Amino acid sequence: MTDLIAYVNANGKRSFADLPMTDVDGVILAQLAYVDFETLVAHHVTGFADLTDPVLMQHVVDLTWNPTANFNLLLALRSSPRFRNIRWHDLVKDTDTAAEKQFCAVTFDLGHDFHYIAYRGTTATLTDWKEDFNMTFMRDIPSQRSALRYYQKMATRHPGTYYLGGHSKGGNLAVFTCLHSRGFLQDRIQQVYSVDGPGTKKPLPVAIQSKVKKFIPQASIIGLLLEPETDYQVVKSNGIGFKQHDPFTWNVRGTGFDTLTTTSRFSQLTQQSVTSWLTQLDNATKQEFLDSLFSILKATHYQDFRDMGANWQTSLRLILKAISDTTPQIRHQWRSVTGQLLTTFVGELTDSVKPQLKLPEVHLPSLPTIKPFTKTK
Q1: Are 84 and 94 spatial neighbours (Cβ–Cβ below 8 Å)?
Q2: Domain boundaries, the chain
Q3: Residue 355 — pLDDT band, cuts 50, 70, 90?
């Protein structure tokens, strides 16, 4: 069994003409969206063959979720005839804290008028996570609209065939773009790769389903959020728990992934619980709850979860103070919303184990009806 880097080393001498785009290629290029291409372009590095400075290479992966693996991946790509001639261009980064938007995309030229647009997934910033959670109550989020406009511009500027892909939120952006493209713009999309990305809340039309390849690990949580579909491939991962969200933990077999028939019981239980919980909350309640939660986190004055973790004692003290300063209405809302999630989870767990253990009926206490906040002046 191998991983993404071993795949590059094993197949790096094969051209895309010899070995057309594989699922592993699609995941690798999606993962690369986390690399700091802005710095690379500033240093006139626009292709893997130009990666000659190891200090620069380390710098541009420092803020990725897995810096060591990403650095080793870049080393493998620059030495690979399959990948080293790939160029990138048209990097777009757009962060708007007020609009709760964090968007980044880059286009890879694969040669022969084939292009791959990689949408960056969720980073460690508060803005990024808040935008992700906004998917639960908004029809569309700012990054989704930007992703669609970005593809429309690229397809007009650089004619050819397109692959779209992204990890986590980036996968959702790729699917959203394909779903909302029309006419020749949709026809030009060859394949879409969603790498453990959240769903789009509604089933996809058949024409779109045929273009989308979605991969999730067996303990997936993120990839099953807002996902009504079951047309995804479950990949075996050697990670534990949430670490399976990292594609570098996924097992590769040959030129594809080592797949399983189903997700783990915990993954299924979590999906069922969260889906059931979200359907019980109206959009106003979701928005009020999330806004109040993130206002507490912002009270730490840190914009990045990594900074919070590095200064956890100070962060905790500020968070507790911010909680104590909230109104009684907000605290009551939190108890209601979180209590309902716990009740839903326990209910799903009871239904899951009862047939196997022949447990007696369990009647859970009902929680008070959740009402939208009463605004206070």
Answers
A1: no
A2: 4-263, 269-357
A3: low
